[in-house]
Structure formats: structure tokens, C-alpha cells
Specification:
This is PLP-dependent aminotransferase family protein. By secondary structure, the chain is α/β, with parallel strands linked by helices. It contains 16 helices and 16 strands.
């Protein structure tokens, strides 16, 4: 029971409210936000607060540490702990340009990281974590990959998995392994920029194939296959980057049939499948020998792991892929691979991903409310594809937004052909704080509602 003379901001800790130290830190943040606590106010000593809340001292210490990390508190030595003055933000750019998972509410990522690494170091030989691994992942890492892909495919042979240092490395290695200089790669008119970067670097040509509201058009794909004899077809069929379109099951089956009939190979880059609401099975389900399936942890968990899993059924093709991969990325860092494996096998990854999924959907609802009729997202995933009114061009809007401290990505960054699309991609996960995201979306909405001003160069 709390003391009647306790501070007004003191939280009533809920049994199902998440970690108690976070509940205390959140209460501090709320009290600062609503003015109940003001800069310069002295907080109770940690032991006294622990007694008031009936928690151990460590819980309060962690709460104060978290509040300091949020720049809410400052220590003044023997005089105690005080509410800090507002931090002056020298850089006010609101980044809506980078597709990263949003921080999930109620998940203590620092604690998750510490526990995961502790388990890795307890169970693994430190020397093995600091040496070369040339086989596309350890047996445990490949088993973790098979487990990660089980929602898409069911039971898989772990021997068919290859562990890579991220999806971009996997895409580049597949281009090197399966095509020759000058070969054609077919892709949708707007597609993941990393594909274009790798293809250009390796001297391959990208040709755009028409897409509609369901994804790449099968008739156009078959026509392009017969005309250009492509080395690869690249597809991102679930919550496509950047359009956020999810290809339906019927369309996926049609494309798989074309791949078999035309004997063309498909790179199915599928980073968002686990974030989507009831997505169809992957294209690889219907053309397992034609499709190379990539699933990265960067979009569901965190980019810092730099781990992606590639499903390659044919052992000869796997070896060719590994040879190509080793030419520029010898291996996944064993420590981060082991951490990813630990999280996947002990269930931590599922909990983190569920938190990311919930937070992403909450942010989509926010975007839908603020952007109103302009919102064209799917309600899940990490981004929104915003078609612009005719008085704005995508490049023009990106510049205007940048001048107001908002970073967005114009359609030109995703173009694979000569046709222009007047749209921007808005990423909802890269701004950690929800209130700052809301402010960025509101500023962007106001910008969209007015016509662009004539450009004039500054003279100094």
C-alpha cells in the first residue's frame, strides 16, 4: 500500500503492466510531460521510493537509469537526483525515410540483448565466436533458419538453409552466382533500391515489367521472359517495398507456373512476410526448384543482427551461391549469428517480433488518421506508399519536406525503368518516439495540403 504522503506522480504498479522499472520510468516521463514534475524538482532517494512502491532497490535504480537515458533526470552527487531541464535538440530531422522496425512497447531491448549474449557466452566456445566460419552458418544457425521459415513453409531441411550477412548480401551473391555480365534481371517498375545498386555494380541490366494493384502482371512477365531470356526475376511479393502491395495467392501461383514453363529463376525477397496480416504462402511453395527465398531479420527484429536466411533447395546451386558470397562477404559475424540463433530457439525472437508487429499496426492507424484520404497503406508492415497530388512532384516534395526537417524517400529512388511514378515512401519505424512520429506526419500532411512555393536560391 502506498503512503498517503507519497508524491502525486507515483505510479500504481500493475501486475500485467510490463517490467516494473519501465512502469516507474514511464510514470516519470508522463509527470514531466504534464507538468506534475518540473525541471529542478528533487526526486525521492532511491531507497525511500523503493519502500513507497514496495519494490526492491534494484528496480528503482534501473528506473532512474532508464529515466536518465531518456534525458529526464540528472544526478547532482550527494544532493540527490533532479528533474533535468529539457534537452536542446540541435538536429531536428524527423526521419521517415529509413525502413527499420519500430521499437516495441513494453520490450526492454537492453535487457533482452544482455540476456541473449549471456546465454550465448555460457553455451558457446568464445574462440569459436571469434574465428572464421565458411559454411554459410553453423548447424545450429541453419536449424534456427529452418525454424524461422517454418511459418511460411512448414518443416524444412536445415541443410537447405544458408545464413548470410543481410538480405543485400544475399541478393548480390545470387546475382553473381546465377547471372553473367550483360544479363537481364526483370523487376517491377518500382522496386527495392538495393537490387538496382547491385545489378549496376555487376554490369547486369534491369528491365521493368508492368505491375498492377496485385503486383507483377503475369502476361507481361511471360512476354518479357520470352523476349529477353532473363537471368533472374526479382520479386518482393509481400508488403512490397515501396508500394506496400501484397500479391495474392492466385497471382503467386500464376507467376510460379510461368517460372517453371519459361525455366526462369526467381529471387523472392520476402522481408515483411512475418509482419503481414495472413499473407499467402511464398511463391517458392509452388516452384521450389525455381525460386531462391530470402528472409532477413532486419525488418522483423533489428538491423544490427545483420542476419538473413536463404532457402536454396539444390546443393549444387547452394555451393555456387556460397562461392559468390565469399568473394565479398566471407561470413556472418559469428557472435551476432549466435545471438540470432539464441533468440529464435528460446522464443525471444517471437516475442520481439510480436511487439514490432503490434507497434507497426498502431503506427499505421496513426498515419491513416493523420493522412486521411491520402493514406494507401496495408495497415501493417513498416511503410506507406503515398501518391501525391498533381501540383507536387515526388522530388519537389522530398526537397520541401527536407527544408522543414522531414526526410522522406521519393519514387525516383525505387525506379527500375523510364516511367515515373509520382509518390513518396513514408517509413513509420525509424522515429523511436511516437509523439515525434505524430508531429512529423502532421507536418507532412500540412505540407501536402498546400501548393509548392516558387524555388529561389539563397544568396549569402
Amino acid at each position: 500500500m502506498q503512503d498517503d504522503n507519497a508524491p502525486l506522480w507515483l505510479p500504481r504498479l500493475a501486475r500485467q503492466g510490463g517490467p516494473r522499472f519501465l512502469q516507474i520510468a514511464d510514470a516519470l516521463q508522463a509527470a514531466v510531460a504534464d507538468g506534475s514534475l518540473k525541471p529542478g524538482d528533487r526526486l525521492p532517494p532511491q531507497r525511500h521510493l523503493a519502500a513507497l512502491l514496495d519494490v526492491d532497490l534494484t528496480t528503482v535504480t534501473r528506473a532512474y537509469d532508464e529515466a536518465r537515458r531518456r534525458h529526464l533526470l540528472e544526478g547532482r552527487g550527494a544532493r540527490g537526483t533532479y528533474v533535468a531541464a529539457p534537452k536542446v535538440e540541435l538536429t531536428s530531422v524527423l526521419d521517415l525515410s529509413m525502413n527499420t522496425p519500430p521499437p516495441p512497447e513494453g520490450v526492454d531491448f537492453d535487457d533482452l540483448l544482455k540476456q541473449g549474449l549471456s546465454q550465448v557466452l555460457m553455451r558457446a566456445d568464445a574462440e569459436l565466436l571469434m574465428t572464421y566460419h565458411l559454411g554459410g552458418g553453423s548447424d545450429s544457425d541453419r536449424k534456427a533458419g529452418a525454424h524461422w521459415l517454418a511459418p511460411m513453409f512448414g518443416a524444412l531441411d536445415a541443410g537447405q538453409m544458408v545464413v548470410c550477412p543481410g538480405a543485400q548480401a544475399a541478393i548480390a551473391a545470387l546475382i553473381l552466382a546465377l547471372t553473367e555480365p550483360g544479363d537481364v534481371i526483370l523487376a517491377e517498375p518500382v522496386s527495392y533500391p538495393g537490387l538496382r545498386a547491385a545489378a549496376t555494380q555487376f554490369g547486369r541490366r534491369i528491365i521493368a515489367v508492368e505491375a498492377d494493384q496485385h503486383g507483377m502482371v503475369p502476361e507481361r512477365l511471360e512476354q518479357a521472359c520470352r523476349q529477353h531470356q532473363p537471368g533472374l526475376v526479382y520479386l518482393n511479393p509481400t508488403l512490397q517495398n515501396p508500394t506496400a502491395i501484397t500479391m495474392g495467392e492466385r497471382r503467386r501461383k500464376e507467376i510460379a507456373s510461368i517460372a517453371r514453363r519459361c525455366r526462369v529463376r526467381i529471387v523472392e525477397d520476402d522481408p515483411y512476410w512475418l509482419l503481414a496480416d495472413a499473407p499467402p504462402p511464398p511463391i517458392a511453395t509452388w516452384a521450389p526448384e525455381q525460386v531462391y527465398y530470402i528472409s532477413t531479420l532486419s525488418k522483423c527484429l533489428t538491423p544490427g543482427l545483420r542476419v538473413a536466411f536463404v532457402l536454396i533447395r539444390d546443393p549444387h546451386e547452394r555451393e555456387r551461391f556460397l562461392v559468390a558470397l565469399r568473394s565479398f562477404a566471407l561470413m556472418v559475424a559469428p557472435l551476432t549469428a549466435a545471438l540470432a540463433t539464441q533468440w529464435i530457439l528460446d522464443g525471444s525472437a517471437d516475442g520481439l517480433m510480436e511487439g514490432v508487429r503490434k507497434e507497426a499496426r498502431l503506427r499505421h492507424r496513426m498515419a491513416r488518421d493523420i493522412l486521411a484520404g491520402r493514406y494507401s497503406g496495408a495497415g501493417d508492415g513498416l511503410h506507406v506508399w503515398l501518391e501525391l497530388p498533381g501540383y507536387w512532384s515526388s522530388a519537389q516534395l522530398a526537397r520541401a519536406a527536407g527544408s522543414e526537417g522531414i526526410a522522406v524517400t521519393p519514387a525516383e529512388a525505387f525506379s527500375t525503368g523510364s516511367e515515373s511514378v509520382n509518390a513518396i515512401r513514408i517509413s513509420l519505424g525509424s522515429i523511436k518516439d511516437r509523439s515525434r512520429l505524430k508531429a512529423g506526419l502532421q507536418r507532412l500532411s500540412h505540407l501536402l495540403a498546400r501548393r509548392p512555393e516558387p524555388f529561389s536560391a539563397a544568396v549569402v
